């Protein structure tokens, strides 16, 4: 299934993009440019192959899983938080993801990719648990290669079904205590950063836990020695189930000609994995914000993406992606209104 | 009128902001992890005196005027005269109409100094003080008396909005060549050479850019504004719509509304307003950061952040509309998220969150 998805990913439609660019050039000559909002529409038009797209149906895909490394105490929150927050998304509906999905008029699907607890009673949760959390990657690989591929394919399956239901725009959300440690290791493995350069404060940890976290990243890389040329190897050795699923979401979105809005540090780590499997999928990614995690800027540069929003966000959960989705909608509507106006010009 | 208004601007409501902050700290997220959105929610709480503000009514006020300096050929868009864009907007065909429809915000269009008589337009508010300002490289843009009149028109327009219950006002403008005036105003307060302040419009050649820089330098040399007198800076280098916006900002702050800045022209107006009454700063919110260098300099001088890196060059309140969206998102967060106690989620056990988060909020 993964191979098939990868083979379906094709470049954007350059001819359609040119039509939209030209339309904006005319506006720029007369009044002024809308800068990067124009780029958003051009990208989306090139993805769906329509020079006058309508506002897409949007869905946040929120993947949740636990990390064995969390038991080292590298987060400000206890391990049970992954379970409690997943319930929060679907039962209390009081998380940042809920508020921001509502703001951006997106629906939301929540996937249990590997939460370390029984979640069978949670209504609406998509049950794709691969294991009860990954293994502690400071002692060996986080998961097997088969599990890594299975995580990616789960993301693909979920998106394929959402596309059937008419969704054309996805935002990435994740929940997993310990996952910024995993993303730091992924980034260090791909980009050759030192553990110190790749690691940030995540949920807001003290200096003491920060030292433990950096040491965990260093140890994970040393013991596993992931192959920087093999994204699946990196995912298996130092990744997480939810990050694999998000990589699958990106790849499936690209294969099915949908736009996928990258969120913060963790979602971008998933972006690096997807990119390593299919560099073409970059064209389908839209960066949202610049995270407060220090390595995020470098990751976006590697992907050739530029963030639109700088608000010091560091939540994940698709919060920044939701803001960018809103900007995308406004831009798409503006493009449509411009065509309408040129058809009924008063002056 | 102006003196009373300046005296009426009060500080933000600290008690409301503290209560708001307590809730923000205890929503189910790592402490401070929605940083900029939390800052915006807290500011709206302080302005509106409500710890959990919601359903705030908002509008965008667009001030239009012409600039004598346009005859120097300093803008890349001189072919599109101010009135044409205003008429376009009145007919609902400008980009800002599209944005305003999407985010559901009312537009208020004001002619405070367009250089010609406009056709009959039901949605245009006529507050013309004079037919365009004078060319600032030859002398002052307008008299002090005209400046005060334009400010007062802005005050009246804003007060009408406040009377409708509006508590967030976005700023926008139309005015060919007004980025030149705005850069000249900002230059008075910035310790930077003009070449580092003037903006390079789309497709502007290096020769026209050089010319724009010279025009601004000459305007400063000819007018010699006293920076201790913000009204003099405004009268000599500004423009009628900039003065009108100053009035809007002051009245909004006095009437406890949040003011959302757009690009460099509205930022220049905000800078003058802050120079007239420093308390105004607390009511101001930045939105986007344009390519005009004087824009970020003005925001730094005021001391407020901007969030959106979009290279917008359009004006007409488009960036302010997006800034209003960011406030909408922040209030969505404040109202739709639950606390650790409400959602039964564990609080932080390490870092600053462990000190500030509680289960009983």
Description:
By secondary structure, chain A is of the alpha/beta class. Chain A folds into 2 domains: about 1-55 and about 335-345, Orthogonal Bundle (5,6-Dimethylbenzimidazole Phosphoribosyltransferase, Chain: A, domain 1), CATH 1.10.1610.10; about 60-325, Rossmann fold, CATH 3.40.50. In chain A, about 50% of the residues lie in helices and about 10% in strands. Chain A has 14 helices and 6 strands. Chain A has helices spanning about 1-10, 15-30, 35-50, 80-90, 95-105, 145-165, 180-190, 195-200, 205-225, 230-240, 240-255, 265-275, 295-305, 320-345, and strands at about 55-65, 105-115, 125, 165-175, 260, 285. A 6-stranded parallel beta sheet of chain A has the order 3-2-1-4-5-6, sandwiched between helices. In chain A, helix 12 (about 265-275) links the parallel strand 5 (about 260) and strand 6. In chain A, helix 11 packs across helix 12. The model of chain A has no long low-confidence stretch (mean pLDDT about 95). By secondary structure, chain B is of the alpha/beta class. A 6-stranded parallel beta sheet of chain B has the order 3-2-1-4-5-6, with helices on both faces. In chain B, about 60% of the residues are buried. The mean pLDDT of chain B is about 95.
Major interchain interface with per-chain residue totals: A-B, 67 and 67 residues
- Which band does the percent of strand residues of chain A land in? 5-15%
Number of strands of chain A: 6
Measured between the Cα atoms of the first and last residue of chain A, the distance is 54 Å
What is the 3D shape of chain A?
Answer: globular
* CATH level-two architecture of the largest domain in chain A: 3-Layer(aba) Sandwich
Mean of all residue-level pLDDT scores of chain A: 96
Mean pLDDT of chain B: 95
Lateral strand order in the biggest sheet of chain A: 3-2-1-4-5-6
Mind telling me the C-alpha Rg of chain B?
21 Å
Broad structural category of chain B: alpha/beta
User: Main beta sheet of chain A, described?
Assistant: 6 strands, parallel
Helix-residue proportion of chain B:
40-55%
């Amino acid at each position: 299934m993964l191979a098939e998805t990868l083979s379906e990913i094709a470049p954007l439609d350059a001819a359609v993009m040119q039509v939209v660019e030209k339309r904006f050039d005319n506006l720029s000559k007369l009044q002024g440019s809308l800068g990067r909002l124009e780029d958003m529409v051009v990208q989306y038009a090139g993805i769906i192959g329509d020079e006058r797209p309508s506002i897409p149906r949007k869905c946040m895909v929120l993947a949740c899983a636990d990390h064995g490394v969390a038991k080292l105490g590298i987060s400000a929150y206890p391990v049970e938080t992954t379970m409690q927050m997943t319930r929060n998304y679907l039962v209390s509906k009081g998380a940042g993801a809920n508020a921001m999905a509502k703001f951006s008029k997106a629906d939301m699907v929540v996937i249990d990719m590997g939460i370390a607890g029984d979640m069978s009673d949670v209504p609406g949760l998509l049950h794709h648990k691969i294991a009860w959390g990954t293994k502690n990657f400071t002692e060996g690989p986080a998961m097997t290669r088969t599990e890594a591929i299975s995580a990616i394919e789960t993301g693909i399956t979920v998106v394929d079904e959402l596309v059937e239901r008419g969704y054309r725009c996805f935002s990435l959300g994740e929940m997993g205590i310990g996952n910024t440690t995993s993303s730091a290791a992924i980034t260090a493995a791909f980009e050759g950063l030192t553990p110190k350069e790749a690691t940030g404060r995540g949920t807001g940890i003290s200096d003491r836990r920060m030292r433990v976290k950096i040491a965990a990243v260093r140890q994970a890389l040393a013991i596993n020695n992931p192959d920087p040329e093999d994204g699946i190897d990196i995912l298996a050795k130092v990744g997480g189930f939810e990050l694999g699923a998000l990589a699958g979401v990106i790849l499936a979105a690209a294969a099915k000609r949908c736009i996928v809005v990258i969120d913060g540090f963790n979602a971008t780590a998933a972006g690096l994995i997807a990119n390593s499997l299919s560099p073409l999928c970059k064209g389908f990614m839209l960066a949202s914000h610049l995270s407060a995690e220090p390595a995020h800027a470098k990751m976006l540069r590697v992907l050739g993406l530029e963030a639109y929003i700088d608000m010091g966000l560091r939540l994940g959960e698709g919060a920044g992606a939701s803001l960018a989705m809103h900007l995308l909608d406004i831009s798409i509507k503006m493009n449509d209104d411009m065509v309408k106006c040129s058809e009924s010009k008063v002056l | 009128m102006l003196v009373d208004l300046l005296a009426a601007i009060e500080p933000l409501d600290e008690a409301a902001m503290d209560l708001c902050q307590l809730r923000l700290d205890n929503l189910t997220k790592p402490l401070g992890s929605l940083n900029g959105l939390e800052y915006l929610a807290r500011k709206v709480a302080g302005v509106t005196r409500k710890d959990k503000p919601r359903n705030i009514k908002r509008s965008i006020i667009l001030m239009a005027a012409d600039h004598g300096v346009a005859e120097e050929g300093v803008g890349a868009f001189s072919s599109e005269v101010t009135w044409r864009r205003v008429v376009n907007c009145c007919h609902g065909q400008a980009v800002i109409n599209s944005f305003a429809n999407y985010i559901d915000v009312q537009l208020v269009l004001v002619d405070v100094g367009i250089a010609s008589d406009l056709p009959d337009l039901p949605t245009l508010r006529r507050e013309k003080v004079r037919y365009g300002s004078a060319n600032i490289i030859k002398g002052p843009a307008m008299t002090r008396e005209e400046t005060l009149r334009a400010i007062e028109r802005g005050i009246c327009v804003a007060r009408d909005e406040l009377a409708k219950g509006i508590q967030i006002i976005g700023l926008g403008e139309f005015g060919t060549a007004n980025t030149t005036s705005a850069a000249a105003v900002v230059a008075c307060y910035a310790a930077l050479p003009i070449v580092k302040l003037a903006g390079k419009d789309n497709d502007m050649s290096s020769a026209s850019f050089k010319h724009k820089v010279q025009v601004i330098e000459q305007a400063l040399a000819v007018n010699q504004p006293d920076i201790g007198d913000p009204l003099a800076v405004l009268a000599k280098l500004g423009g009628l719509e900039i003065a009108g916006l100053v009035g809007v900002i002051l009245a909004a702050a006095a009437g406890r509304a949040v003011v959302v800045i757009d690009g460099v022209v509205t930022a220049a107006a905000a800078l003058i307003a802050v120079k007239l009454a420093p308390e105004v700063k607390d009511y101001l919110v930045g939105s986007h950061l344009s390519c005009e260098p004087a824009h970020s300099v003005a925001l730094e001088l005021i001391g407020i952040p901007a969030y959106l890196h979009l290279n917008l060059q359009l004006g007409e309140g488009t960036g302010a509309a997006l800034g209003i969206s960011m406030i909408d998102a922040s209030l969505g967060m404040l109202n739709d998220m639950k606390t650790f106690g409400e959602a039964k989620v564990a609080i932080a056990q390490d870092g600053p969150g462990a000190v500030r988060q509680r289960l009983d909020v």
